[in-house]
Amino acid sequence: MIAGVNHITLAVTDLPRSIWFYTDILGGTLRADWSHGAYLELGELWLCLTLSDTPIQSRQDYTHIALSCKDADFPTLSRQIRDHAELWQDNKSEGASLYFRDPDGHQLELHQGNLASRLAHYRTQVDGQVRVYD
After folding, report:
1. Rounded to 5°, angle at Cα 70 from 64 and 73
2. Could you read off the pLDDT of 109-118 as tens digits, one per residue?
3. Which of 41, 86, 94, 109 is catalytic?
4. Averaged pLDDT score across all residues of the chain
5. Which helix (H) or strand (E) holds 42?
6. Cα torsion angle, 23, 65, 50, 84, sign
7. Burial 52-67 (b: 16+ CB within 10 A, else e)
């Protein structure tokens, strides 16, 4: 049985730029680096950045990684992200969200809420399009 996410690895084309983005903009902590990669902590997330020798293809679908922050930090962090990242979608779901791309085009979301709040939202919907299992 899966116990959780161990780590996420993202290919990047400019390691110093990506380290700057994930530390200075998103507030991560650099834990290790080497000539072709780095390990960062973002909350409880272990993020590995690895230097790619091929161009990174930006996705055009809904695939993305959603990141959380403290509710009180959401407005400030959202403004900071808007100042340094391209937005790729408007929020259409429960909870405040900001959809943005990192410097290599990886699609990310800053989301306020969790699975419990999402399920609670769907329990109140009368259209019945989403079934919630308890």
Report:
1. 95
2. 999 888 888 8
3. 109
4. 93
5. strand 37-42
6. negative
7. eeeeeeeeeeeebeeb
- Would you tell me how many other CB atoms lie within 10 Å of the CB of residue 105? 14
E strand spans, 52-106: 65-68, 87-89, 97-101
Does 94 qualify as catalytic in the annotation? Answer: no
3 state SS of 117:
helix
Return the sign of the alpha-carbon dihedral for residues 90, 110, 114, 95.
Answer: negative
Total residues belonging to the chain: 134
pTM exceeds cut of 0.85: yes
